[in-house]
Amino acid sequence: MSSTPEYRSPFSLFPLIGIPVFLAISNQTMVSVALPDIGADLGQLRRLPWLVTGYLIAGTVAGPVYGVLGDTWGRARLLMLALGLYIIGSLACAIAGDLTLLAAARLLQGLAGGGLISLSQALIGDAVAPRQRGRAQGMIAMISVIASTLGPVLGGVVVAAMGWRAMFVITALPAFAAMAVLARYKIPHAAAEHRKFDTGGFLALLAFVLCGTLAIEAATEDGGLVWVVLGLLGAAAGFVGLLGTQRRARNPLFPPDLFALKPIRLVSLQVVCHGAALVSLVTLIPLFHAILRTDGALETAMTMLALTVAFGVSGFITGNLITWTGRTVLFPSVTLAISALGIVFLGVYGPGLSRPALMATYLLIGLSNGTGMAVMNTIVLYASPDALRGRAAGAVTFFRSVGAVLGTALTSAVLFALAPHQPGVDASTILGGEATVDPQMLAQWRWAFSGAFFCIAFYVAGGWLMALLNPLRRVE
């Protein structure tokens, strides 16, 4: 540990900070675009969403652990470990021979991804002078928007040109570059007050998420009633255990004093709805394009660009509107209702829309749904006591991940519960375009996607309700 930290310019650390953030954010949308091609190659159409939810579960589990170990061992060492795991996971994905092995490799990627963003952001505090940290955070915000925007396009281009396996190999290359930069620089390890990690609360929350996801997944399986019951019992036990540990723990994950504040409670629920809606939408749309519109990866990616660009633009505009007007929940109270109606429209009319009309629908959904995150972050930072502000901000990220996992699992369960089951018709037939699918079967698929989109609209409506009820309507 250095007694006189050698601070560096944010721009000199751009590869070190920017590459991990870009990889973690773009990974999700790149893999989503590749899902139809993976399904056509490996089959097991019903298991494809697990390539997204498995990554999210692993990242959700790993995030708090990286935080604790980073304070003890040093964030630079932990980031090096996370980058190494990411590379191994990416190469394992590229050579996976079946969907089970690919899902396992995605779990490994998720364990790495759980630390890429948080450790990179924390390194700013270790390596960048206090007066320059705002500029470094601005760089991260810019990279996040670029990654969200370019992720589908890059994924579509690579998959269309070289196949889905090449996509995983290519994403490993920037991680090698980040490791080289990290090895070159000496990053000081800032001393931190040692706090005992809330292991009991963490394990209880993990049980709630995993058992809840298991129950949702088992509900779509024949003879899965026993697993549904066991999953629900485990989720209930985990939730009750979480409540108990948070009251007793000296350093709880979710301090009761923080969640006694109504604005924080409502924002937490809104974040869960936001994560469920956003990740479900990005996961569902590529399958929707492949099955009902017979689009390839590149066509899907270019069409989705309207959605991802709109998310970033909307967040930027909303942040400035909050600064200019001081108003907060006014924006999502109006726009999330529009977003829910847009998603319902997509579920009813989406398969028959022309491409310009479909892109206009995505643009509307993205602009109206993108207002939420800026407002939620602002309320959390404004309403939280100074001593709990860090954990409040961390809870937002954590709840978003939990919502994404449970929401995507539920949306996938609705989709495949309503989807047709026809002997002799596998994923390669539906996704690969090798045969003409029976019109009656396509009609059933259309109904299944309508149900899934209605499920996402329900999440958005839940977020709208939480925004409407939030009493913190203005910040000074």
Report on this model:
With 476 residues, this protein is mostly helical. The chain has three domains: 9-196, MFS general substrate transporter like domains (Growth Hormone, Chain: A, Up-down Bundle); 198-250; 255-476, Growth Hormone, Chain: A (Up-down Bundle), CATH 1.20.1250. Helix content is 79%, strand content 0%. The protein is built from 17 helices and no strands. The mean pLDDT is 82.
List the helices and strands and how they pair.
Layout: H1 14-42, H2 50-73, H3 75-95, H4 99-127, H5 133-162, H6 164-184, H7 199-218, H8 225-248, H9 256-259, H10 262-292, H11 297-325, H12 330-349, H13 355-369, H14 372-383, H15 389-418, H16 427-432, H17 439-469
Helix pairs in contact: 1-4, 1-5, 1-6, 1-10, 1-11, 2-3, 2-4, 2-15, 3-4, 3-6, 5-6, 5-11, 7-8, 7-15, 10-11, 10-14, 10-15, 10-17, 11-13, 11-14, 12-13, 12-17, 14-15, 15-17
Describe, in short, the structure shown.
This protein is an all-alpha fold and 476 residues long. Helix content is 79%, strand content 0%. It is built from 17 helices and no strands.
Based on the model shown, name its key terms:
mainly alpha, 3 domains, 79% helix, 476 residues, globular
Instruction: Categorize the overall geometry.
Output: globular
Strand content: under 5%
Question: What would CATH call the class of the largest domain?
Answer: Mainly Alpha
How would you classify the quaternary structure?
A: single chain
Mean pLDDT figure: 82
Question: Pairing-aware structural class of the strands and helices?
Answer: mainly alpha
Helix content: over 70%
Give the N-to-C terminal Cα separation: 40 Å
Largest sheet: none
- The CATH homologous superfamily of the largest domain: MFS general substrate transporter like domains
How large, in whole angstroms, is the Cα Rg? 22 Å
Number of domains: 3
- Run of helices and strands: HHHHHHHHHHHHHHHHH
Please provide the count of β strands.
0
Do you know the CATH architecture of the largest domain? Up-down Bundle
